[in-house]
Design brief:
The chain has 172 residues and is α+β, with helices and mostly antiparallel strands. Helix content is 16%, strand content 23%. It has helices spanning 54-57, 75-78, 143-151, 157-161, 165-170, and strands at 12-17, 21-26, 35-38, 43-45, 60-64, 67-70, 80-81, 87-90, 94-97, 108-109. The strands form four sheets. The protein has a three-stranded antiparallel beta sheet, with no helix packed on it. Strands 4-6-5 form a three-stranded antiparallel beta sheet. A two-stranded antiparallel sheet has the order 1-2. The longest helix has 9 residues, at 143-151. The N and C termini lie far apart (43 Å). 37% of the residues are buried.
């Protein structure tokens, strides 16, 4: 069941999506920078994403090498992945609009912008022309895609903090 959280953006509603399940959709325009949802449950420590309790494995966000936060049936948990996202991650747990999102658009972020563990989505169903088919960790992205996401500010701070300084200088 969907349980609204206090930080969920009122401009988003949960709808069923054929083929994917449920997702968050804008019901009115959402401006770039607006917070959409927040993963807001106590942190959970684990060696890897796949060693989390089963109910968390596909519904938690990674916030450090061994720390994860569960979405606990809120909007954050229901925002789907896309290889061409319109949202990103900031402040470790906030999903925010990376650009203006029009009414009717599904809210999607690239899970690789927070994930750098062993979790894998073997069959991506995002439908994007840029779809890579399989969703792995941030380090699995090409340098070009990493730079694109970093320049747009879509990547969680914990991943940015752990990037090689030479790589970070190359995107400036």
């Amino acid at each position: 069941a969907f349980i609204p959280h206090k930080d969920d953006n009122p401009k988003v509603e949960v709808r069923n999506d054929t083929g994917i399940g449920r997702g968050g959709y804008a019901i009115s325009p959402i401006e770039a920078g607006e917070t959409i949802a927040t993963f807001a449950v106590e942190p959970y420590r684990a060696e890897t994403a796949c060693s989390l309790p089963l109910q968390m494995v596909d519904h938690a966000i990674q916030v450090s090498p061994n720390e994860f936060i569960h979405g606990r049936k809120g909007l954050a948990e229901l925002c789907n992945h896309s290889c061409s996202p319109n949202a990103g991650i900031r402040n470790l747990t906030q999903i925010f609009a990376a650009r203006r999102i029009e009414a009717g658009e599904q809210i999607c972020w690239d899970y690789r912008c927070s994930e750098n563990s062993d979790w894998v989505l073997y069959e991506c169903k995002c439908g994007s022309s840029d779809c890579e088919g399989v969703v792995r960790k941030f380090n699995s992205l090409t340098d070009t895609k990493k730079m694109e996401y970093l320049k747009k500010g879509l990547v969680s701070e914990w991943i940015v903090k752990n990037l090689n300084d030479d790589f970070l200088r190359s995107i400036v």
